Amino acid sequence: MKNYPEVPILPTTVIGSYPRPKWLKETIQLAKMGKISKADLEEAFNDAVVDVMRDHQLAGIDIPTDGEMRRDEMVEFFAENLKGFTFYGFVRVWGDAYYRKPSVVSKIEYKKPMLENEVRFAQSVSYTSNLKVTITGPYTIADWSFNEYYKTKEDLVFDLAKIINQELRNLVKMGIPFVQVDEPALPTHEEEIPWAVQAINEAIKGIDVKVGLHICYGDYAKVMPFAEEMKVDQLALEFKNRDFKDLNLLKKFGYTKEIGLGVVDVHSSEVESPEEVAKGIKKALQVLEPEKIYVNPDCGLKRLSRRVAYQKLVSVVEGTKMVREELKKKGLSTIQLKPIVNR
Ligand SMILES: [Zn+2]
């Protein structure tokens, strides 16, 4: 029997990314211009992870990440590390945001563990062994790439699923108790959801630690009918910037798994108060048991200023503590960080 860690009830966590310190952005620029060595850049990434961990620790987050300091972008990072992808250049995604869109030009193959080094470093400087590691899901990697090799998008997604599974198994071996698959693209093509869900299940097959699935943007009503079929333990969703209205969807679809409850908006620099956070959690408690709620920001914090991101984390923690006080009176104080679905 595996020994699962104990965490406070309503564990606080993050979705993944955190703002890169200003000096790290400048260091990355210098590295691109060839003005500093690879080793110096690596040292800067490591130092940034130490800073980010410290912010999470000071805020009081139970299950931190390393802030994804090494990842410029969530698809590009994995495409760069897999055989089968090439990059032609930048495409415009919205406004004046540009994205280096990868293209699949041959069979996707696993070259080497992609996250091992960053995870090992995070573990070596973390204040807790309860680390969460995020990985972009097979559907989103495919959806945000050009497919110039596979006959169908479905074939590509299932090949990617096998690779993500290999990577996740590696993370489990390293002792990571919580992995999160990020699939922001999932709700965007409704007709593809049924097989995309099967591909996600393939990607998490045999993973016997907590598995979350994060979806942002899009209409959750399109995904909810598949919630039971998805073999994840938890859906981490944005609720705050939708005014918690989607809690009704959980009720409507008789949702029984856990949620990662987004309680602060990552698109607004206004910092929510702890009271506001507590109010959001109480709304969720009307539709789900307290044991099934994890508390986190709506999405990654990378686009906020570091100061605002930190303050939002403090509110997440302080607001959660308020609700915990009330749960304590009912004898609820801790839960185990463990899977609830057999994969
Ligand atoms: Zn997100």
What is the structure about, briefly put?
InterPro entries: Met_Synth_C/arc, MetE_arc, UROD/MetE-like_sf. The protein has 343 residues and is an alpha/beta fold.
Describe this entry's structure for a reader.
- The chain has one domain: TIM Barrel (Alpha-Beta Barrel), CATH 3.20.20.210.
- A 6-stranded parallel β-sheet has the order 4-6-7-8-9-10.
- β6, α7 and β7 form a beta-alpha-beta unit.
- The radius of gyration is 19 Å and the shape is globular.
- The chain is about 35% helix and about 20% strand.
- With about 350 residues, it is α/β, with parallel strands linked by helices.
- The mean pLDDT is about 95.
- The site of zinc ion has 6 residues, from loops.
- Zinc ion binds next to loops.
CATH topology-level name: TIM Barrel
Largest beta sheet, briefly?
Answer: 6 strands, parallel
Number of H- or I-type helical stretches: 10
Give the CA-CA distance, first to last residue: 16 Å
What general form does the structure show?
A: globular
Q: Tell me the domain tally.
A: 1
Number of strands: 11
Mind telling me the CATH class? Alpha Beta
Radius of gyration: 19 Å
Low-confidence runs of at least 5 consecutive residues? none
